[in-house]
Amino acid sequence: MNNIVILTGAGISAESGLRTFRDSDGLWENHSIYDVATPEAWERNPTLVQKFYNERRRDIQKSQPNKAHILLAEMQNKFNVNIITQNIDDLHERAGSKNVIHLHGVITHSQSSKNPELTYMIDYEDINQGDLCELGSQLRPHVVWFGEAVPKMEEAILQASLADIFVVIGTSLAVYPASSLLHFVEPILPKFILDPGNPPVTGYKNLKHLKFPATIGIDHLMKELEKFA
Fold this sequence. Notes:
Oligomer: single chain
Radius of gyration: 18 Å
Helix content: 25-40%
Strand order of the largest sheet: 5-4-1-9-10-11
Mean pLDDT: 93
Largest sheet: 6 strands, parallel
Number of helices: 8
Distance between the termini: 8 Å
Structural class: alpha/beta
Shape: elongated
Number of strands: 11
């Protein structure tokens, strides 16, 4: 059974109605990323940051997996599928995908502000100021902010290096280090990009670009992958 590794980005979740800062000129739900998505923002105004992610958590709870999420989950019937996502939502899991690496954290967990390895499942509940981890420090969103290390990157690199087929969906490949994952895929192996934009992917062998939004292009991708089933 072929091992398919899929990197997903904001484009796939946007089609479930979830906005991203890159779709709004550096603003994320009318906030500058520097006010809500950096360690400095947390130090400066933790109440604002908590409020922002509590609202995002409620937005995600109301959203639903779209056709692309669902068909990626169904792909597990024919392939060994590993998903690496830059998204902090849980739509892949809710669609039924089993093997999901969240590079930038996941909104349904909280995290110790003292030890980032201490995380707690909170589903869609709010995190409030005064909610503490077992070390006695404030809980914060389990989100990798700009300027922080990406702890799951080594695991993602390993998966990319083990891929028989590598797929990119809904990302401009502009955010490092996720954008580097293509470098770790064996050059001769088939690669697909499903995105309406023009990610910077010149020079790669055996790469096909399907220029569609995720929910439209997913059928084209499935037809391409049937050749390897």
